[in-house]
Amino acid sequence: MTSRIFLTGHHEVSLGQRHCGYLHSGQFIDRCLSAIFLQEYRPLEVIVVDNCSRDDSKRVLARYKDRIRLIENDRNAGFAAGQNQAITASRGQWVLTLNPDVLVQPGFVAGGSSVLSSSGLTPADAGWRCPR
């Protein structure tokens, strides 16, 4: 998922997420999105790239249609292309990409955002760690 922060005092985190049909992500995507939307940090932009999935992913994603930006590919463009689509579509300055089998812990986005905005580090320098 994709992450951006405006340095004007308004922090916006965009989470971009992709999944591929050949990975049969439908079994994971609901739990992943539920964990994302339990984050207290706002605002969140969630982008999902469907790389032509052939399982129940679309049915699961339909439940989140008002909370995600869905990019649907008519063929499996591959991992890197899916990531690049989400990054390009994001409106954020920083990008956090997640696979559908990732469950972010409570406070993860807020903790990472706090570290990045207060330290002057880039995401590559700081890494994102879940606060303990």
What does this structure look like?
- This protein has five helices and four strands, in the order βαβαβαβαα.
- With 132 residues, it is of the alpha/beta class.
- It has a single domain (13-126), classed as Spore Coat Polysaccharide Biosynthesis Protein SpsA, Chain A (Alpha-Beta Complex).
- A four-stranded parallel β-sheet has the order 3-2-1-4, with helices on both faces.
- It is globular.
- It starts with 12 loop residues before the first strand and ends in a 6-residue tail after the last helix.
- Mean pLDDT is 74; it is low at 1-13 and 17-23.
- How many structural domains are formed by the residues? 1
Low-confidence stretches: 1-13, 17-23
- Strand content is 15-25%
The largest sheet is:
4 strands, parallel
Q: What is the annotated CATH architecture?
A: Alpha-Beta Complex
Query: What is the class in the CATH system?
Result: Alpha Beta
CATH superfamily: Spore Coat Polysaccharide Biosynthesis Protein SpsA, Chain A
| DSSP helix fraction | 25-40%
Please tell me the overall pLDDT.
74
CATH topology: Spore Coat Polysaccharide Biosynthesis Protein SpsA, Chain A
What structural category do the secondary elements indicate?
alpha/beta
N- and C-termini, Cα separation: 22 Å
Q: Which word captures the global form? A: globular
Say how many strands there are: 4
Q: Multimeric state of these chains?
A: single chain
CA-atom Rg in angstroms:
14 Å
Note the run of SSEs as H and E.
EHEHEHEHH
* Total of helices: 5
Strand order within the widest sheet? 3-2-1-4
